[in-house]
Amino acid sequence: MTVDFGRNIAGSYSAFKHLLTHQTKFERPIEGENERISMSENLPVVYIARHGNTAWTHSGQHTGLTDLPLTPDGERNAMRLGERLKGMTFAKVFTSPLQRASRTCELAGFGAGAETDPDLVEWDYGNYEGLTSAQILQKCPNWDLFRDGAPEGESPAEIGQRADRVVERIRHVAGDVLVFSSGHFIRVFTARWLGLGPGAGGRYFLLSPASLSALSYEHNLSRPVIRLWNDDHHVGTVARQNESDDELQLAQRRNIARNARFRNEHKNRSATKFR
């Protein structure tokens, strides 16, 4: 498939919004109901999982090719993602070689059959690797990743070319596909799936760690669409259920201290009032 990076498909927000009106609600197929599902739902689906948290996810630092491990909560969320995907089967599973993605894939239960694809690595941030957006904007106030790319790293066109190769490979797979990768790459990949420019389209697709999204088609293979975006309900559930004892004890100590301060302030006010 020939791709023209000069196409100004996402030249306006209204055009982009029109694309999203074709999004349909994703539901897992129910056994025995294949004859009743629509033509669109018979078309292949690409499920995309963003990796779980790392230390730099929490600190807001740009994590491109730095190969960080998952944090404990990142591992828990990856396992919860596996619960979300339980019972689903895929013709192919692809993962980035970076351990935050491959470990998420493994903990979700798909490590054994996954193929590593180097094109799925995160955006190469070059000189901005390890910096927060605030630190970058102090140096370059008008910087925009999806417009400017990263010095000594990748431009939007370069990461777009990687995304195009992944799109082409996936479109040659007969059946549903599951992909594990990183946030900015997934956003560019989604833009290219829809035929949008890598920068102009990718900027709109916000993603949470360990979230699940799905791309497919409407009616036929010439109409790519988003079916599900940034589903992280499973992450919220596990985060609440797995708060550590230390965190709970810290919260309790803070409440006790707060109540003690309130009582002391109340006493002081009362003493001043009746002097």
Total strand segments: 6
Task: Return residue spans where pLDDT drops below 50 for at least 5 consecutive residues.
Answer: 1-37, 238-252
Percent helix, as a range, is 40-55%
Series of H and E elements: HHEHHEHEHHHEHHEEHH
- The CATH C-level class name of the largest domain: Alpha Beta
Q: At CATH's second level, what is the architecture of the largest domain? A: 3-Layer(aba) Sandwich
Instruction: Name the overall outline.
Output: globular
- Overall pLDDT: 81
The main sheet comes to:
6 strands, mixed
Radius of gyration: 23 Å
Q: Cα distance, first to last residue? A: 86 Å
At the fourth level of CATH, the homologous superfamily of the largest domain is Phosphoglycerate mutase-like
Q: Strand order, main sheet: write it out.
A: 3-2-4-1-5-6
The secondary-structure class comes to: alpha/beta
Total domains:
2
* Count of individual helical segments: 12
The amount of beta strand, in percent, is 5-15%
For this structure, the CATH topology of the largest domain is Rossmann fold
